[in-house]
Design brief:
The complex is a heterodimer of chains A (about 300) and B (about 475).
Chain A (H helix, E strand, L loop, with lengths): L9 E2 L7 H16 L11 E6 L4 H13 L3 E6 L11 H10 L4 E6 L4 H9 L2 E7 L5 H15 L9 E5 L6 H12 L3 E5 L15 E3 L2 H4 L5 E4 L5 H4 L6 H8 L3 H5 L6 E3 L12 H5 L5 H20 L6
Helix pairs in contact in A: 1-5, 1-12, 2-12, 5-6, 5-12
Chain B lengths: L4 E10 L2 E10 L2 E6 L9 E4 L4 E4 L1 E6 L12 H10 L2 E6 L10 H11 L5 E4 L15 H6 L4 E3 L8 H14 L2 E4 L4 H4 L4 E2 L2 H6 L3 E2 L1 H18 L3 E3 L5 H12 L4 E5 L1 H5 L21 H13 L4 E2 L8 H4 L16 H14 L9 H8 L5 H24 L18 E10 L20 E10 L2 E5 L2 E2 L7
Parallel strand pairs in B: 1-4, 1-5, 6-7, 7-8, 9-10, 10-13, 11-12, 13-14, 14-15
Antiparallel strand pairs in B: 1-2, 2-3, 5-16, 16-17, 17-18, 18-19
Helix pairs in contact in B: 4-7, 7-8, 8-10, 12-14, 13-14
The chains are: A alpha/beta (about 300), B alpha/beta (about 475).
Chain lengths: ~300, ~475
């Protein structure tokens, strides 16, 4: 589905946004940041949060956003996303839909789950992260945070952003690349070939396996989290070797531009992707990212569920 | 005694060529072909003008799910779907629960299927319990009538065990059939690995997971000089490896499926689990390559890999859903639709026997109709008499439309354009990828052993299944 339909059926992928729609969402987030804590923009709206994959941070962020808009959230925490014999996922979500809620916020380890659930139930669905596919609210809060630091969205044009780490398995990287492309930033994906998607998989980007070579060019360094299981899968030999090649150490940090910005979707493992002193430095936007998440999610919920929501 | 079945004015296609004329069936035999037949009282007359009568089909690859999977399919529902699809016989795959790895289990399954109007053939496993560790009792299986053994559903991972299976099977005259998949390369994937899977955030199954085992097994067959059959090949590179091996004289045959010939990975864009199948739908480039290699003779049979699943196993995300799709009921239309696409790409069958080409030329049809008939002949060869020969059914089972031949045949309306609907599915399962898809060519009549199982596009002999 393209941007022409707006977000009235839900928001599951950055691919639904054009620049104009993304700008209006970010503008709405700015109004929420400056406005009163509580409003009645979504009165009598019931949103069920279906988290098939645990994520306290994202779930609470959505719940705070919904509460501030006057909506009610119902929390459905299901570890049993995998099928039990005889009852399909479709049966489960259709049952929840039959309770009459207005929409769903869905988090799942399975790519495509939000889209499928929207198709099955006819309900509006907001994607809170699906497998290695998309995490659009994260991408929008990253764009928001960057534009806040740089002073404007226009400043993203020509900005050199390096996304470092496990790109192949990252929904954050996929969504962010699409968002950065909308505003003309130049993306370089940095990591070993085993953690890279194939060339031509989607949004435009350069690829490099040599972080050191890229350091002097980058305006933004966006670090991704690395999962332990990548060693067992034979994708990297050890954490030690990963740190040696791709961690943002103090030494690498000194070789970056002085005005560089450091970002990370959290939770950060200090000493792994990034040195603990570097992530605490003022060039790091990690805290702003977390705070801004609530405003951006208020904007998303308003666009999806609001009466006069932006088309 | 009941009257004859008379097909009036059809194009008659069999392994010797294509003619035009009438065809009459009496009892379980064809009594007249080509010459004009004057219907008498009591005869059932089918106006076959504009259609093509061809030998009934034989499926080299059907998952009937019996025993153990009756929630998804039964012998009755599976063979009803087969009859609708024009099949007179199907080979039941042995990856059941428990697996068909010994003569007793096979005898039990065959006994239950004995009275069905569609013939059910049994295959056996290569290894005990399909566990990939020890050989099944292959001599006992062979004695029980098994012609083909396979661990389909998994490849034989142990190269030495496969070498021994080929050697031991060859001396028994068994066809050892491989599901080509190196499990360590498979990597828990759910669709073809490539830019599309990366963009969708789905784990990919790389083409090399198949191709490495194709290459390994070809070398094993070369070394042992034993007969090897490769199931459901899905990539252009696999087909190329087979073509080269055949040119070298390696005793290898190969199968391709209707879905790999018609569909490509783009269908996964909407995350629909009905398109989750193993081997996965590949790139459209691969699909086109399969047609080019098929036209040159790389493949011997088109087998459906009909794989029913209960609803709950498919109403799921791609990560959780089962692999497999229905095939029997729409296979001929699917393949013919794919062939028309290949024709548009300029691909034509290159291995038609001279007398077949001559018979088509002699009909005086325009060039485009003649090209379509050439493809239909090639398809019939790969879905009817070639699989029959592979499975040891004998040349008299299907393949000839002549007085004295067995009355196993299909009337195919090659000019029909249609869209299958869910209500028409005869399989117990509903996981058909062809629902809502525009197909070319439709089966109107099916006669098996002289019995009219399908008439005017509908199953007319449901009583046969009870």
């Amino acid at each position: 589905m393209g941007s022409d339909g707006g977000l009235k059926r839900g928001f599951w992928s950055m691919g639904q946004l054009d620049r104009e729609l993304a700008e209006s969402l970010l503008e709405s987030a700015r109004r929420h940041a400056a406005g009163p804590r509580r409003s009645a923009i979504l009165p009598a709206t019931e949103i069920a949060a279906l988290f098939f994959e645990t994520s306290t941070r994202t779930r609470v962020s959505f719940e705070v956003a919904a509460t501030r808009l006057g909506a009610t959230t119902i929390h459905f925490d299901s570890k049993a996303s995998s099928l039990s014999k005889g009852e399909s996922l479709q049966d489960t979500v259709e049952t929840i839909a039959s309770f009459g809620v207005d929409g769903l916020v869905v988090r799942s380890s399975a790519a495509g789950a939000p889209q499928l659930i929207a198709d099955w139930t006819g309900l509006k669905v907001v994607n809170a992260g699906d497998g290695a596919h998309q995490h659009p609210s994260q991408a929008l809060l990253d764009l928001y945070t960057l534009s806040e630091r740089l002073g404007s969205l226009e400043a993203l044009s020509g900005l050199r952003v390096g996304i470092v780490g496990d790109i192949a398995h990252s929904r954050v990287a996929r969504s962010l690349m699409e968002g950065l492309n909308l505003f003309g930033a130049e993306v370089t994906l940095i990591g070993p070939a085993t953690l890279m998607p194939p060339i031509g998989f989607g949004p435009a980007a350069r690829m490099s396996s040599d972080f050191d070579e890229c350091l002097g060019d980058l305006d933004v360094v966006y670090l991704l989290r690395l999962q332990q299981e990548r060693i067992g899968q034979g994708l990297i030999p050890s954490f030690g070797e990963y740190v040696a090649r791709y961690s943002l150490t103090r030494e690498r940090y000194r070789r970056l531009k002085p005005e560089v910005v450091i970002m990370h979707p959290g939770p950060v493992y200090p000493g792994m992707e990034v040195d603990s002193a570097v992530i605490a430095d003022e060039s790091s936007l990690v805290r702003s990212q977390t705070r801004n998440g609530v405003f951006v999610r208020m904007a998303i919920l308003e666009a999806v569920f609001g009466e006069g929501g932006r088309e | 005694m009941s009257g004859r079945i008379v097909f009036k004015g059809a194009v008659l296609l069999d392994r010797t060529g294509i003619r035009v004329g009438d065809l009459a069936i009496e009892g379980d035999l064809i009594t007249s072909a080509e010459a004009a037949v004057e219907p008498g009282p009591g005869d059932t007359v089918v106006d076959a003008r504009g259609g093509v009568v061809l030998p009934a089909l034989v499926d080299s690859h059907t998952h009937l799910r019996v025993p153990g999977g009756e929630e998804a399919e039964t012998l009755a529902s599976g063979t009803m779907a087969a009859a609708m699809g024009g099949y007179a016989a199907v080979l039941a795959m042995p990856n059941t629960t428990p697996a068909l790895d010994n003569p007793a289990r096979i005898a039990q399954m065959l006994a239950a299927a004995a009275d069905l109007p569609v013939k059910v053939l049994a295959s056996g496993t290569i290894t005990k319990e399909r566990a990939g560790a020890e050989l099944s009792p292959l001599a006992a299986l062979s004695k029980a009538g098994v012609k083909l053994v396979t661990d389909d559903g998994s490849g034989v991972q142990d190269a030495n065990l496969m070498r021994r299976a080929l050697q031991y099977g060859a001396e028994l005259g068994l066809i050892v059939a491989e599901h080509c998949e190196v499990e360590s390369l498979f990597g828990g994937g759910v669709m073809n690995e490539g830019p599309l899977s990366a963009g969708l955030g789905l784990r990919g199954i790389p083409a090399v997971a198949e191709e490495v085992m194709v290459a390994r097994d070809i070398e094993l067959a070369r070394a042992t000089r034993a007969r090897l059959h490769l199931l459901h090949l899905s990539t252009g590179r696999s087909a190329e490896l087979v073509e080269r091996a055949k040119a070298d004289g390696v005793p290898v045959t190969a199968e391709v499926t209707p879905h790999h010939l018609l569909m490509a990975e783009d269908l996964l864009r909407g995350y629909g689990s009905v398109y989750k199948v193993n081997p996965p739908l590949r790139t459209d480039e691969d699909r086109r390559a399969l047609w080019r290699y098929l036209a040159r003779g790389a493949f011997d049979v088109i087998g459906t890999d009909h794989a029913p699943h209960p609803r709950w196993r498919k109403e799921a995300t791609l990560d959780d859903a089962a692999f497999g799709m229905l095939g029997l009921q729409h296979a001929l239309s699917a393949v013919y639709t794919g062939a028309l696409g290949a024709l548009e790409d300029g691909v034509r069958p290159e291995r038609l026997p001279g007398e077949v080409s001559a018979s088509i030329a002699g009909l005086g049809f325009d060039e485009s109709k003649a090209a379509r008939l050439a493809w239909l002949w090639q398809i019939a060869a790969m879905m009817s008499w070639q699989p029959a020969r592979l499975l040891g059914l004998g040349d008299d089972f299907v393949g000839r439309l002549a007085a004295g031949s067995r009355a196993n045949l299909v009337l195919f309306d090659d000019s029909s354009e249609w869209t299958p609907t869910a209500a028409s599915i005869l399989s117990k399962a509903g996981n058909s990828p062809y629902l809502g898809l525009r197909l070319s060519g439709r089966i109107e009549e099916v006669v098996v052993d002289g019995r009219r199982l399908v008439g005017s596009g509908e199953l007319i002999s449901e009583g046969n299944w009870h």
